[in-house]
Amino acid sequence: MILISINSESLKDMKKSKAQIFFIIRCISNCDAKLNFKERTIYSYTCEDCGSQKLSAEWKITDDAGNVPLEVMSQNASTTGFLTPNLVINKNILLKTKNYTFTLVVGFTDSLKRVTFEFTKTTCSQPSSGVCYINPTDGYALETYFKIVCYDWEDLDGFLSYKFFYDNNQSQQMKLSSTSTVDYPMLNAATTDQPSLIDFVMGPGDEKNDYKISIIIKIYGKYNAYTEYNKLFIKVRPSNKLINMTDLLIGINLNDTQSVANIVQAVSSTTNKNAASYYNNTPTPINKFTNMEDTDAKNLEKEQELHLLQNARTEMIDLLSNTPVSDMSSFKSIGDALALSSQNPVELVPQSQNQAANIVMKLADLLTKENLKVVGADSFETMTQPFVNSISNLFEANFDYITPGVVFPTSQTIISTIKPNVEDSKNMVSKLFKSMENYFIAAQSYKVPGENQTAGETKQFSFMLKKDFLNGFSNSSIGSSDGGFILPDSKDMFNESVQNSPVLINNVRMKVMAYTWDTNRSQNILSESQSLSISDVNGRPIKVSNSSQPINIAIKNLPEKMTGKNISLSMPNDVYQVKLPIALDCNLLLKFLFRNDENNLTNLIVYIQYGKVASKLDYDIVLNISARQGVIMTKNNLTVFNSNITNTSSNVESNFSSVLLRNQDVRLLSDGTLMLWNFLNSTYSFRNKSELHLSFSYVGPIPNKKVDVNPYTFDEPESIGTFDYEMKSFCAECNYWNEDVNKWMSDGCQYDVETSSFLVTKCKCNHLTAFGGFFVAPNTIPTPTFAMFKAGYVLFVTVAVIILLWIIGLIFTRKMDKKDVSKIGVCPLLDNQAEDNYLYQIIVNTGSRRNAGTKSNIFFTVVVCQCPFGDNGFLQALQTQSVDEPATCTIISL
Predict the structure, then answer these.
(1) At a CB cut-off of 8 Å and minimum separation 6, what does 380 contact?
(2) Can you tell me the distance from the alpha carbon of 734 to that of 741, in angstroms, rounded to the nearest whole number?
(3) Pairing relationship of beta strands 723-732 and 565-569 according to DSSP bridges
């Protein structure tokens, strides 16, 4: 909406050119005849054909007496300040039913001439004096029908509307820096003109809050200023009956968006409550034979419950997908219902995920200028929160199903009931990103150059939105130190012709991997991913493909996703060898953690060498690691000290280091992390052994013995104790998502060894897109071909001959093993007589070292062996190879 438009041909002295200049003050938000003091007021100043000249401006707001009112002078009155051409007045700053005169004085910075614009606006009134009630105040989920009635409300400006919300402590809240308004699910988005809502059902309340649900009613006046009535509470207990969708849908028009959304919200709240209760409180079944916990039975129950929950989610989303979505009232209803039904993403099967993504696309298509022209900035940011939370939930659901080995919550049941389709995942994620883009464009339409950035955060991603002139982003930082961008001068990235153009900056930080269809690479990601997009005010992208100066990118690593190597040492100076296969171009980071040395009794000694086994006499680097004193690195008789290893601060500190250039390049970081790179320059690189060898030992006392408890016999035998350590390692890379080929690639990016750390990967790139930090992907196994056989036939023949010889040797040795059995026993001599007596000596050896004797009582079982003498009644007394038959022995009591 244009408030003031001036053809400034008469003001040619502001500019020496005789060309016409058009000054426009445009209303962006709160544009009715009267100002809504409950909404942000946004005015945008535009100077067409001003070229590259800079403007100086000053806003002034006065009351009827010509004074600047105190409310305008408050610290949080504006997000732009009053010295820019654009103005944003926050909500709840202006007072109701009061006149305000807005004055803008503007001109070119290099000129003394100024133009003054002035207009007066009046704030609206606020509804008052009424009451509301709800009946009944006690009931059961999905059984009791409630009704809300309001009366005696009035407003000086006339027309009233009513919006009914509820708070059951289950709805997801989204953090948004630009608004403090809390979003709640809405019950009557399509019937706000009516002061009542009859016959609606609810889900259960929170057990911790005695099942109470707060009913929040907002009564709106003609200009959307509202009074909040929050004195109503109902108690909704969970029902013991199974959910019967057929009964709930009796009499419901499936084309009535509000009715369907109300049912879906109630059922989804009930399902969320049941799921949370089951995850937290399900007892483990007892095996009736062992009287012990039956883990297998528990996992089976979990799988069955998961199937039931998945079916419930599928039914709800199927209902929503068939419900018409046509205006912003249905946007709010469907958004609330979808956010609740997708609240537990692990319970969304791929079919439901695709349906939900289609619903999100329908909602995103409603975010047009035409639909939003009557929606204020604060109202927009509040009503779209369920929509954004739904996108977040679907990103998590896609990641859970497409990633192998995802564990069902609170159990070890692996989600494998339905195999994910990579192509479906690709299509779904593309829809989600497109919907996010629509949301960002709509949110940016409420922003003006010079305004503070808007930061938002959901469970699975965070974002930053900012509008400014392109040259305003020169040498600026976007995001944070552990995840963001530092841009060079805008002249290094863009042409001179666009330097003074307003642009939109969108920075998205994904906490889960979205690009899951690049299966060879995505599974190796051990970081968040960062993306930065720049577009014009209409949303058309402005690509940065060949910046003359590097763009610095910080990406937060996720150590919890890194699989560590456990090192257990039972004796001082015992050596434990570890071999890591790595590539020559690997940028390796090593982190060592103490697991069970609570009293800091030990020092972990680590010898490191590339290409050859490390030892005390032959190594590249030696580390002396103590939980108390930190890490001491020695190389070439040079010692480097560093900070305490127990420092687990997530803050990125200045990376003090010592770089040792001779042989292996290495850096000891301030958090105790060891960084190694340039293995081509290492001492033994000529051996072409792509392996890093680490030799572990410790100095300190012998560890205490462990007591192993057997749950079946209740025995508690002792075993040798160990000091346990963990080594986390990964090769860091800088990769970006290539949208043309749908793959992660690394061209145009370089890993920054100087500033990277274990927690943050730093990259320097000459273009902008989505970035991530990785493990180096494992080498793929090639498909066997005849050409490969021809090239490697010598190795094939060698392996085949070895296997053949092994099989022949196995057959021969097995025959010899069978003959060994026949040699067991004592063979009597042929001249033995029945009355002869013999003396046998039995010797028991308890050890060969000194004092190896024992005071134990030793017992022997004497048996009589009845040995057949063959077919002729005689047995050869002396045989060098075998006997005819083995002896059979019978135990005889003596």
Answers:
(1) 372, 442, 443, 446
(2) 17
(3) antiparallel
Residue-wise pLDDT for 75-120, tens only, equals 899 999 999 999 999 999 999 999 999 999 988 888 888 888 899 9
Amino acid type, 723: F
Distance CA 607, CA 682 (A): 15
619 strand-pairing partners: none
Q: Which two tokens stand for residue 414?
A: 């692996």
CA angle 462, 758, 687 (to 5 degrees): 135
- Residue 313 has a CB neighbour count (10 Å cut-off) of 28
Query: At 321, which amino acid appears?
Result: S
3-state SS assignment for residue 691: strand
Name the pairing type of β-strands 454-457 and 461-469.
antiparallel
Distance separating alpha carbons of residues 226 and 159, to the nearest angstrom? 12
Under a CB-based contact definition with an 8 Å cutoff, are residues 884 and 819 in contact?
Answer: no
How deeply is 100 buried, as exposed, middle or buried, from its count of CB atoms within 10 A (0-12, 13-18, 19+)?
A: buried
Q: Are 757 and 669 in contact (CB under 8 A)?
A: yes
Cβ neighbourhood burial of 317 (10 Å; 0-12, 13-18, 19+): buried
Q: Of 763, 577, 749, 758, give the one whose Cα is nearest residue 676.
A: 758
Question: Do the Cβ atoms of 569 and 576 come closer than 8 Å?
Answer: yes
Q: Which residues contact 670 (CB under 8 A, 6 or more apart)?
A: 642, 643, 653, 654, 655, 656, 657, 757
Backbone phi and psi for residue 884, each to the nearest 5 degrees, phi listed first:
-70, -45
**pTM: predicted TM-score of the whole model, two decimal places:** 0.79
Q: Using the structure block, give the residue that is written with the tokens 């890591």.
A: 580
Q: What is the CA radius of gyration of the chain?
A: 38
Between CA 447 and CA 445 the distance in angstroms is 6
Indicate left, alpha or beta for 30 from its phi (over 0: left) and psi (-120 to 50: alpha): left
Confidence at residue 869, expressed as pLDDT on a 0 to 100 scale: 46
Question: pLDDT for 115-147, tens place per residue?
Answer: 888 999 999 999 998 999 999 999 999 999 999
**pLDDT of 210-268, one tens digit each?**
999 999 999 999 999 999 999 999 999 998 888 888 888 888 889 999 999 999 999 99
**Separation CA 724–CA 565 (nearest Å):** 10
600 phi-psi bin (left φ>0, alpha ψ -120 to 50, beta other): left
- Buried/exposed 667-690: b ≥16 CB within 10 Å, e otherwise: bbbbbbbbbbbbbeebbbbeeeee
Cα torsion 191, 195, 201, 207: sign: positive
Please compute the mean of the pLDDT values over residues 159-168 and round it to a whole number.
94
What are phi and psi for residue 698, nearest 5 degrees?
-135, 160
CB 41, CB 71: distance < 8 Å: no
Out of 619-633, 684-698, 769-783, pick the least confident.
769-783
- Strand ranges for 1-40 from DSSP E: 2-7, 22-29
**DSSP of 495-524:** -GGGTTSEEEEEEEEESS---TT-HHHHTT
3-state secondary structure of 583: coil
Provide the residue type at 750 as one letter.
Q
